[in-house]
Amino acid sequence: MPIISCISKILVIIGGLNWGLVGFFDFNLVERIFGADSIVAQIIYCLVGIAALVIAVMIARGDCLCGSSCQCAGKEGSCHCHKDTEEE
Prior knowledge:
The protein is mostly helical. It has helices at about 1-25, 30-35, 40-60, and strands spanning about 70, 80. The protein has a two-stranded antiparallel ribbon. The longest helix is centred in the N-terminal third of the chain and has 24 residues, at about 1-25.
């Protein structure tokens, strides 16, 4: 699951940046690179949508989205991450 989480985060960021470009500058980077109405652009949009669903499910389940370098303090609806500072 960590690889799916990582890929989903990257795709959601790419999608968000693309929507920001569309909103601010009326510039669609995905269509510029792959062509408007191309099958590749359609696939990218579908993957970004699926990634957003994966992230939404992770949030709804209370999963930690911080990454593997931290430990989350329980699943009480919010993720309070902190680095493992336990000393021996």
